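User: I'm writing a tutorial on reading structure tokens. Could you give me a worked example: one chain, its sequence, then its tokens, then a sentence or two explaining what the tokens reveal?
Assistant: Sure. Here is the example chain.
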Amino acid sequence: MHESCPLCHSVQIELFHEYPSFSLISCKDCDLVFRPHLDQLNAIEIVTDIYDADWVAMRNQYAKKTFTEHAIFNILLLEMWCPAKGKLLEIGPGTGEMLYLAREAGWQVIGVEPSPASCAYAHDRYGLQLIHSLWDASVLDEELKGSFDAIVFWHVLEHISNPKQYLEELKEFLKPGGKILFSVPNKKSFTNELLGVYSPLYTESDHLFHYSRNNLQSLLQQGAWQILTIFSREETNRLESHLQKITGLTDLPLTDIMRLSVMLQSAFQGHEIFCIATQQSQNTTMNEQEVNNADEETQADSFHGCEK
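And here are its predicted structure tokens:
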């Protein structure tokens, strides 16, 4: 077991749950849930076991859903925050749907994907030449440093055993003003609240970390990233499936599903967390300090005013 939390370094940790083939532990101070002995995990073995030909066949079966519920939405975010387009790196593109759409929308695309079956599928189906590798800064050519307008990694960060190092490495490849866009499963999601420790988000052994909004904000702040936006999203089809299992009803009113979906997102209990960030500049850090100092002075003035 870890001697301390990898995020806040607290030693106040406890067992979250023991599963048949792995365990999860929890930090009492920052509420991060994670797998112990992260430095001893064999990432290649995990990828080979899970993201194999059967997984790719499943993705092929649900390709339309991947496009309509995920890839289109992700492209929309990218276009909103990076309208000038340019060079895009996707880490963990899976079977390549989002990267394919980005290419068709005018981006110059590069993808790094650890699953050989996924790389083969993306090449055969979409003509994408993915780099077959686990993420490592050395897999990209030196001349690509400082060249990317955006780096995206959808549902990847929870698989990274050293997220602080990973985020630091990405900075080398971004242009000044470049952005990272990513998503993770939401630890505070309705899915987890409903199913508890047996939620599929917890029982998937390749999910090394389970992040809440506060966890992500802390992680990015420690790495000197400026968060541009952070929000939760609830997929209505998944929500309807959960509700059907709970109620036993197969014909739930559409308005009820939509209302609950919006309520969950508003309460930050959506299934996923999305985040867009850029590197903090020295000026940004200085301005934040000035704002903090100004706030302290205002609070002091208000206090002395009350004394009078």
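What the tokens reveal: DSSP finds twelve helices and eleven strands in the chain. The CA atoms of residues 294 and 300 lie 10 Å apart.
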